[in-house]
Amino acid sequence: MTSVNKQMSDELTELDTYTKELLAELEAGSDSRTEQSPAEERKVRDLFTRAENENLTGPIIELFSRLLEAARQKKATPADFGISSVDLQRLALKHQQIDEHMVSVGGRLVRALPIAGQANSRVEEYLAAKDSVAPSGIERWDQIQENISRIKSELKMTDEDWNSFQGQIRHAVDSVGTLAKLIDLPKDVLESIGRVTESYRMRLTPYYTSLIMPGVINDPIMLQSIPTGEMIDNAGVEIPPVAADHSPARLIDQFYPRVLTIKVTNMCAMYCTHCLRLAHIGRKDHMYSKEAYGEALDYIRKNERIRDVLITGGDAFVLPNSLLQWLLAELDAIDHVKIKRLGTRIPVTAPMRVDSELLDILEESSDRKPIRVVTQINTAQEITPVSRDAFRQLSKRTFTVLNQAVLLKGINDTREKMWKLCETVQESYVRPYYIFNCSYRNPQFSHFRVPLEVGRDIVESMYGNISGDAIPRYIATAGGKIPLHRSNVMKREGDDYVLKKPWNGEEAHYPDADPDVYAREMFAFNNRGVK
Ligand SMILES: *Cc1c(COP(=O)(O)O)cnc(C)c1O
Ligand code: SF4
């Protein structure tokens, strides 16, 4: 024993309850013994020697767990292996002395290890399924690269076209004819797409098209970007956007006193089939006049309560760099504006837009006042090495990148798919921020809607099972964002609240703060005679 251990063992001579119980169990049950195999005997003797000689907790734990198993199966007691109670007590104390937190051998073996084992079982199903049920674009990169070369040659795109945002937009897939050349779809499906695209626009960047997995029915990328028959067949009347009641100035939507949005364009690189702003997107691309931006900025200037401005659309990254730079500088010049947010899905639909010129502009403005980039990623499949790199750069050059996912049937409405999405998002330098329940306002996408209870199960199931930092808030949009989380406060019992652990339903008693103490003025500083 080292001198440190010697010194500690002088201080520590008491065994705790868990260890005493463990020792008692080891000694008991010695009546109906069976023969130990010589191999097992050698193994235990060997562990005993290691436990005695090595300064590690591992051999001690393994020795005790083998002895415990032998005792529980009524095969042998420690004495049968030539290990005395004094030996066991000495080793138990040694464990406690080596461990930094003085955890006892009984505490670790009988309490902590089984509890950790139980916790592991909660994620086993997910770990087994995640890469097959919800593969990321990083995991599918080989297939995507094959898709890219096929699409590039079919559309006669050069490398330069492919790697530039302009090239991606110029070659965007916006007709059934082009789509049919790139993706193998049955004739009746193509006919139905043709019918729908008379009323709704379709535009996939060639890059986003390359994320579609060949031969997969209901591929999540396809579902998000190719309008299907349901969009016109769904019965129902569209409810006009609430924004109509909430636009106090040109281009502006305002629900809240201190935050508002400017819709700077109606354009996106790709048009989502579940788009909340379907009406706003319309049939045609629009750039707006400087006067329109001017009036929006005037409204912000005159309203000193506004501190957080969301630049959205459409997609904020559709704006040309010069216009974006000007707009950010105008906002930075307004004293009461403290934060800017940019809403964009372009890092997943056309990541080549995130080039050094754009990054310089963002960093310059973010250095004046923080910029948050708010994106929308709905499946792990949308994250490729290319989009991940765009997010890495954005998160380096701005304050944070946040994700707002939409809960969509068939796309991310299971635990496995949503957990995988949130973990992949976090691993890609992005913080999961919101999960929106798919809107009730548009009959065009009622086929994507997921019942609230299903959404709650999915979101609540993340607590305790994936990093807290990867868990988004579950939100309904109904004239503002309304939280939908389930309450884990079950009831009050005396001075306690009874809470429920979302991961296993176990109850936890949580004493509330004493209201009388809370009402008292009683910091020590109050007693310094200062009046
Ligand atoms: C989403 C949204 C906001 C921002 O909401 P946060 O909860 O602050 O992210 C503000 N105004 C409008 C009109 C919005 O749609
Ligand atoms: S990126 Fe946003 S605004 Fe554009 S189509 Fe998709 S959901 Fe609508």
CATH topology of the largest domain: TIM Barrel
Biggest sheet record? 9 strands, mixed
Number of domains: 4
CATH class of the largest domain: Alpha Beta
CATH superfamily membership of the largest domain: Aldolase class I
| Distinct ligand kinds | pyridoxal-5'-phosphate, iron/sulfur cluster
Would you tell me the overall average pLDDT? 92
The percentage helix is: 40-55%
Query: What distance lies between the first and last C-alpha atoms, to the nearest angstrom?
Result: 60 Å
General shape: globular
Label the structural class. alpha/beta
Oligomer: single chain
Beta content: 5-15%
CATH-defined architecture of the largest domain: Alpha-Beta Barrel
Strand order of the largest sheet: 1-2-3-4-5-6-7-8-9
User: How many DSSP E strands?
Assistant: 12
Task: Output the radius of gyration.
Answer: 31 Å
Number of helical elements: 23
Poorly predicted sequence stretches spanning 5 or more consecutive residues: 1-10
Keywords: 4Fe-4S, Iron, Iron-sulfur, Isomerase, Metal-binding, Pyridoxal phosphate
Organism: Desulfomarina profundi
Protein name: Radical SAM core domain-containing protein
Cofactor: pyridoxal 5'-phosphate
